[in-house]
């Protein structure tokens, strides 16, 4: 049994302007101790997916499908059970460390909070553990008395990582943990996360818009487009030999770190990512696809096997390029 | 371990102590500046009050003796008594030294020292208006928190609507309506005053409380919406923040997330409002005190204005301004304690 099994997950935001299907049928599995990277352009639903894993989305979000964590379905479990799984089972390192910490509480108190909640440790033990965690992420223990604004961006992200480790979780979800940091610090933070999860055998789901960063860190990669996974497989295969045209564009993009323009659009790929409230017909990527075929606006591709242990949602991986499927549907 | 490869750069002890010392100096400077600024404002108020009230139209002596048979000589005598015949510079000097000794001269109207009059009237006002600030802040903040947490719900819409309606009602009008219905009409409460004659000892407490109900309800009703609206919008802002998601992700109950994380952050903007309103406490509620004949500073101010009773109005003006300046100073000093980001 895998540690995390996501099966046909959909997330739809109810808004005044209509439903926004942000995640549209995502399935994947993450084994214990494995590191999975999830890449995709801004707005493709990465954060929505990450927050859905612990049912943390606002009340306007509706879920369907299944998220089995350690054998239990997150989407149907009781609130009490869910609160126990949060942080003790799986913790999250959020996108912007600036705002993910409470500005008026000392960081020591914020790290200690989940320990106090999920364990029966005494106050002295909690204080010692907080100091240990800070030293573990490369900060002196006495920084526990600091407030978030007294730390640099990189130090704040280290605090977030210390906090994520606080209850010895089985899974850490890192949602763009290095966005908004400068290049040197990004590399340090990535190395830190990598070494800590490896050391403690924690599974990692790392989200980024930068496939090359993920390829360095993770065992497997998944590429997301318009709320679906369009390519998935071993890191080397996806990064070196992507079968989906979008995966190839991402792998070739090498977005410059810290450059917001490259974050929004991989180089060499025309057009903008589609608006989830108004998706193109057929394959949602077809308006931007350099390898588009005539029937791509009619055929909605599924993840088909594409090479060794890999899958891609593109008609090009089918022997007859999906023609038989089109014929079957129109019959 | 990979950690050893990472530069952790602990700050050397020496640098730390130097930083501490310069921090102390910076903090002292901050407090010194705030205190100095307050003193300058206070002096400006004293100066303004002297000249401002010299240009108010109306001859106080003529007003005092209005309708009574007094000779010109008697009027001159009164002018001399109040020092109104001296040159302006001399008047100012004696006024300034007086103010610094908390001596505002004698009231034209009551023929008694202004300081004594203020002393008598201060406590009724502090009791009434102070209680109203405490109750309206507590009520408004509580409703604001509830409203934000269930925003858009029926109870939120009703609460906000009622508060805004009451806010727009003039206080004297609401006071009169309450008197007509509950005092002269139903007879449940006294129509005016602070206590009944002949009530002694511990009996006075329920008696005063009974007299206080209607003016208190009036004051609270027209003010609590301010707190509700500020708290509600401030908490709505905080609830959308990332650190709230972090707190929920930790597995905290919603009520703890709200109490421990969202509300303390959302309270910060309301602190200033509370202190500003506390500053206006001694100003009383001129209209409400007058309508309910509450023997406080507001009513005193009203009677001083209608004469005009120069020393009395001047003394009250300085007192009111000093209270606002003092409360602003306290807010400035307290705010950094609550919000580490603005700590000097
Ligand atoms: N609360 C919400 N209500 C309505 N729509 C939302 C909400 N949150 C996100 N969306 C929409 O859902 C889609 C996916 O958003 P999401 O934040 O998951 O993207 P992302 O892949 O994490 O992007 P980024 O790289 O910018 O972080 C976007 O189109 C976004 O506009
Ligand atoms: Mg995101």
UniProtKB/TrEMBL annotation, chain A:
Belongs to the ABC transporter superfamily. This is ABC transporter ATP-binding protein. SUPFAM superfamilies: P-loop containing nucleoside triphosphate hydrolases. Keywords: ATP-binding, Cell membrane, Membrane, Nucleotide-binding, Transport. It comes from the Bacteria. Residues 4-251 form the ABC transporter domain. The keyword Calcium does not apply. The keyword Nucleotide-binding applies. PANTHER family: DIPEPTIDE TRANSPORT ATP-BINDING PROTEIN DPPD (PTHR43297:SF2), OLIGOPEPTIDE TRANSPORT ATP-BINDING PROTEIN APPD (PTHR43297).
Automatic annotation (TrEMBL), chain B:
Its main location: membrane. The chain crosses the membrane at residues 35-56, 122-143, 164-189, 209-230, 266-292, 312-335. It is found in: Cell membrane. Belongs to the binding-protein-dependent transport system permease family. It is a multi-pass membrane protein. GO terms for cellular component: plasma membrane. Residues 122-335 form the ABC transmembrane type-1 domain. InterPro entries: BPD_transp_1_N, MetI-like, MetI-like_sf. This is ABC transporter permease. The keyword Transmembrane applies. The keyword Membrane applies. GO terms for biological process: transmembrane transport.
């Amino acid at each position: 049994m895998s540690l995390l099994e996501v099966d046909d997950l959909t997330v739809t935001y109810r808004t005044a302007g209509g439903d926004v299907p942000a995640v549209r049928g995502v399935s994947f599995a993450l084994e214990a101790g494995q590191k999975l990277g999830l890449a995709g352009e801004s707005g493709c639903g990465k954060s929505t997916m990450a927050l859905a894993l612990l049912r943390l989305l606002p009340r306007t979000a509706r879920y369907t499908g299944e998220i089995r964590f350690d054998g239990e379905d997150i989407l149907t479990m009781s609130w009490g059970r869910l609160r126990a799984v949060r942080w003790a089972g799986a913790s999250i390192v959020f996108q912007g460390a600036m705002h993910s910490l409470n500005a008026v509480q000392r960081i020591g108190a914020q790290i200690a909070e989940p320990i106090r909640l999920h364990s029966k440790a005494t106050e002295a033990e909690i204080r010692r553990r907080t100091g240990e965690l800070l030293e573990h992420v490369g900060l002196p223990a006495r920084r526990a008395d600091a407030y978030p604004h007294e730390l640099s961006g990189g130090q704040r992200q280290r605090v977030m990582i210390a906090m994520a480790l606080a209850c010895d979780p089985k899974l850490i979800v890192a949602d763009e943990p290095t966005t908004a940091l400068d290049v040197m610090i990004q590399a340090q933070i990535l190395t830190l996360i990598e070494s800590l999860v490896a050391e403690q055998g924690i599974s990692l789901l790392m989200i980024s818009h930068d496939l090359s960063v993920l390829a360095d860190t993770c065992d497997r990669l998944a590429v997301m487009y318009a709320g679906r996974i369009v390519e998935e497989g071993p890191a080397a295969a996806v990064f070196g030999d992507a079968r989906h045209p979008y995966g190839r564009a991402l792998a070739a993009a090498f977005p410059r770190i810290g450059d917001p323009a490259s974050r929004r659009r991989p180089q060499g790929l025309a057009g903008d990512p589609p608006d989830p409230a108004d998706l193109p017909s057929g394959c949602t990527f077809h308006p931007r696809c350099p390898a588009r075929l005539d029937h791509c606006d009619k055929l909605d591709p599924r993840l088909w096997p594409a090479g060794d242990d890999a899958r891609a949602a593109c008609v090009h991986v089918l022997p007859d390029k999906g023609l038989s499927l089109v014929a079957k549907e129109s019959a | 371990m990979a950690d050893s490869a990472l530069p952790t750069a602990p700050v050397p002890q020496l640098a730390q102590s130097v930083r501490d010392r310069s921090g102390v100096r910076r903090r002292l400077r901050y407090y010194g500046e705030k205190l100095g600024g307050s003193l300058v404002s206070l002096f400006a108020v004293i100066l303004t009050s002297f000249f401002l009230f010299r240009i108010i139209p109306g001859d106080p002596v003529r007003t005092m003796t209005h309708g009574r048979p007094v000779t010109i000589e008697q009027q001159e005598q009164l002018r001399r008594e109040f020092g109104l015949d001296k040159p302006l510079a001399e008047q100012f000097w004696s006024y300034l030294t007086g103010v610094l000794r908390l001596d505002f001269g004698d009231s034209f109207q009551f023929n008694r020292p202004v300081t004594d009059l203020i002393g008598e009237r201060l406590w009724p006002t502090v009791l009434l208006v102070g209680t109203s600030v405490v109750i309206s802040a507590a009520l408004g903040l509580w409703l604001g928190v509830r409203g934000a947490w269930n925003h858009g719900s029926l109870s939120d819409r009703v609460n906000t609507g009622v508060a805004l309606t009451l806010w727009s009602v003039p206080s004297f009008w609401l006071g009169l309506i309450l008197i007509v219905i509950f005092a002269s009409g139903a007879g449940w409460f006294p129509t005016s005053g602070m206590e009944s004659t002949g009530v002694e000892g511990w009996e006075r407490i329920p008696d005063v409380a009974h007299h206080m109900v209607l003016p208190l309800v009036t004051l609270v009703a027209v003010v609590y919406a301010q707190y509700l609206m500020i708290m509600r919008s401030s908490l709505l802002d905080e609830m959308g923040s990332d650190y709230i998601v972090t707190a929920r992700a930790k597995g905290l109950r919603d009520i703890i997330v709200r109490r421990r994380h969202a509300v303390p952050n959302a309270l910060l903007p309301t602190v200033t409002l509370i202190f500003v309103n506390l500053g206006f406490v001694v100003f009383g509620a001129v209209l409400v005190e007058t309508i309910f004949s509450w023997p406080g500073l507001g009513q005193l101010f009203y009677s001083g204005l209608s004469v005009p009773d120069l020393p009395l109005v001047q003394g009250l003006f300085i007192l009111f301004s000093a209270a606002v300046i003092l409360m602003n100073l306290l807010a400035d000093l307290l705010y950094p304690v609550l919000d580490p980001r603005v700590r000097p």
